[in-house]
Amino acid sequence: MAQFGKYNFMWLTLSLIGLLFGAALTRELPDAVTLQILEIGSIVLLMVSLLSLKTDRRWIKWFIAILGIMLLQVVFQHVMPGTLFEYAYLLLLLLFFVLAAWLVGKAVLFTGEVDLNKVVGSISLYLMIGLIFSIVYTILLEFQPTAIKGLEAGQWYENMPSTTYFSFVTLTTLGYGDMSPASYIAEVIVILEAVTGMFYIAIIVASLIGSLRQR
What we know:
By secondary structure, the chain is mostly helical. It has a single domain (2-214), classed as Helix Hairpins (Orthogonal Bundle). It has eight helices and two strands. A two-stranded antiparallel ribbon has the order 1-2. The chain is globular and about 55 Å long.
């Protein structure tokens, strides 16, 4: 358990990578199975992420509350299907990652000395930023199905793998061109994400290198 706490960001990064692979693999499965695996699998991986976040009890209670509500939402979704529960799930997922990214950013930048664990923490923060924007794009598609050109409108769990791909292509400013924003709101979000990705490299990595030089 001590080793788990010492290398907490490594476990967090592995859980996030597992979430990415899990979302990709569900595209090969039937829709009903895809939804169940994506919802339950994401909650399990978020629990691992929660264990990886070393923070005070106040934040832990908030994260547990979010996960508990998400689990209840999954149950209600299968008992009483409806878009309201889908929106609630996506908003809670977004809230979880925003809070987690905030805590990881504080831990990486403002606490202790820089070591391998913190370098890996910067990777997990980068993955979280990409996932946050992926969820934002998914929510946007719920209201504007044609907001992203090259992406066929579908259920949110069908869109999530594609929006995740689009998010990281935008975050890294690769811009392959197979998908592009097709609405004003989507364009603004893409601009914000691209700027975030560029400044992340400039600020976060520079801060870590500066801290290492001061040792």
